Amino acid sequence: MSKSLPYSMKDVHYDNAKFRHRSLFKVITQTLLTSNMRRECVTCSTGKFLGLLMIFGLACLMLTHTNKAHSVSDGLAKGIATNEEHKEVTDIGIRFKKLFRRAPRLPPRLSPDEKIFHHNFTGKLNEPNVEEQWKARQQNVKDAFTHAWSGYKKFAMGYDELMPVSRLGVDGLGGLGATVVDALDTAMIMGLDDVVSEASSWIESHLLDRIRQKGQVNLFETTIRVLGGLLSAYHLSGGDQGMTLAQKGPKPTIYLDIAKNLADRLLSAFTSSPTTIPFSDVVLRDSSAHSAPDGLSSTSEVSTLQLEFNYLSAISGDPKYSTEGMKVLAHLKTLPKTEGLVPIYISPHSGEFSGENIRLGSRGDSYYEYLIKVWLQLRDTQDGNFTYLHDMYEEAMRGVKHMLVQKSTPSELVFVGELPVGPKGYLSPKMDHLVCFLPGTLALGATKGLTKEKAMKDNLLTFEDLDNLKLAEDLTKTCFEMYSVTSTGLAPEIAYFHTKDYFESGLDGGNKSSEYVNDIIIKHADRHNLLRPETVESLFVLYRITQDPKYREWGWQIFESFEKYTKVESGGYSSLDDVTTVPPPKRDKMETFFLGETLKYLYLLFGDSSVMPLDKFVFNTEAHPLPIKSS
């Protein structure tokens, strides 16, 4: 910024005053009243003469002006004024106006600081600056990713996750180096060639051996993180005639070959089950599978495999992956539901739902997400009729609005509750952070990835679509307020909402200045933050679809809080134990999805909307973009 000029703003305003209009009478009287002029007129005969002459001229001018006005008004009233008289009066007026015309007003002079302020807050001059600002913020996210990766590479390379405070690696997802694979396509999108080289070299050298040697993994987690990451890397490195974002790394076929080997082993979860519902766990080294200890699978887990298996069949030419995955959704279509809503458990032994607990948080969430996303993936293909998926999605969203959506007290935040004992029981005002995937899914389902403006221009939106889009915006607001209501600006894992039937005092988020401090209740056991991506995912989708800049601003506030409270100087970012206290105690875990999802969505939110367009790519539930293939 330029150095300020050596005068105050009061001086500038005074300086500008000389350009303001002053009457002729004021000019003369002020001049006559000055001490110098008064003294000269008294002592000088020439001055006296000129003064008398000026007074005489003023009298003539006033008399002429008065006569002109009277002549015109009398002529109009009596109808006797001639054109010649009117012209004479007009000519006299014009001559006097030219003689005493007002000097042109000059624009006010601004100090350098004022000029910068003026340019930043007015009209089109601001637009290039805004884009430069978002480019800078996008670079900040890129720097955060580099910092997170540097900690992982130094202390945990090859392990599933980093413990940044302890500076150790830990295997909690089967020992397949999940962070490496989860982070790879984020590095590709960001153009971080060195990270791409490091991650892809590890995958090429070690991952296949890990798959052959390791024991038990979870079918769902391994599919969305590792298989999804490999398939996305395949496309973004040029496979399937896809994008070539990676300048370094192995040939795309390396990713495809490893993905096929992994998926062949994961298929045992389907083929070992007595029904079309797969078992939850797979032993990789011997391609065997078994159910969880309670014999059940999560509804969300068995229905959140299809995007990945469908795309693998498309690029490998082998339909077996898609066939097994789509059998699950076809079977779920036949099961009884409550207004499209389903319980969160299902038995692979009977093929039936188990229990009556209905929620869109853990174990239920991505069932609803994949209904619309798999339909978007397949709707333009010639592989069959998949409209039933869209029908199931629409019925479920109507059920959500009818049975689960409520407003808080006193500020009427819209939230999605739970039915822990089924549709005939009470509605719990509990909302997991995981539920914040829903606004993005609703918006995506409404416009099919197009901007709202284009969808409306092309007359593609129904009244139900518009209603869903409005709900998406309301829920996004709630998800953001779950962040802003806390002392750290970061959301808890679970929130409860104050309603007419439920309230607990002394459990607010700590930010007393928040408008919603009395609406959101955070219990002691729920105050941790795992660096989750669901809210920034919805901010990304809502911004892309509505083009409303507030979603970017909200995302930036969240990112700043991550930077302030979760960053570990030696490398990496840590989840937190309590977001309501400052400083928050660190939990010593960097989840793989912080690199795979959270930072990816923030980077895309702050960037050009033409990158990864939502009508051309569908993001799996771990934020790995897969292309939408058309016939």
What order do the helices and strands come in, and which of them pair?
Elements: H1 9-17, H2 24-33, H3 35-43, H4 45-78, H5 83-99, H6 112-120, H7 126-156, E1 161-163, E2 168-170, H8 178-190, H9 193-213, E3 216-218, H10 219-236, H11 252-266, H12 268-271, E4 281-283, E5 288-290, E6 297-298, H13 299-302, H14 306-316, H15 320-334, E7 345-346, E8 353-354, H16 365-378, H17 387-403, E9 405-407, E10 414-416, E11 430-432, H18 438-447, H19 452-457, H20 463-484, E12 494-497, E13 520-521, H21 534-546, H22 550-565, H23 592-605, E14 617-619, E15 625-627
Antiparallel strand pairs: 1-2, 3-4, 4-5, 6-7, 7-8, 9-10, 11-12, 12-13, 14-15
Helix pairs in contact: 3-4, 4-5, 7-8, 7-23, 8-9, 8-10, 8-23, 9-11, 10-11, 11-14, 14-15, 16-17, 16-18, 18-20, 18-21, 20-21, 21-22, 21-23
Fold and architecture overview:
Helix 4 (45-78) runs antiparallel to helix 5 and helix 21 (534-546) runs antiparallel to helix 22 (550-565). It is globular, with a radius of gyration of 35 Å. With 631 residues, the chain is mainly α. The model is unreliable at 1-22, 37-42, 66-90, 92-100 and 106-125 (pLDDT under 50). It has helices spanning 9-17, 24-33, 35-43, 45-78, 83-99, 112-120, 126-156, 178-190, 193-213, 219-236, 252-266, 268-271, 299-302, 306-316, 320-334, 365-378, 387-403, 438-447, 452-457, 463-484, 534-546, 550-565, 592-605; strands at 161-163, 168-170, 216-218, 281-283, 288-290, 297-298, 345-346, 353-354, 405-407, 414-416, 430-432, 494-497, 520-521, 617-619, 625-627. The strands form six sheets. A three-stranded antiparallel sheet has the order 3-4-5. The protein is 53% helix and 7% strand. The protein has one domain: Alpha/alpha barrel (Glycosyltransferase).
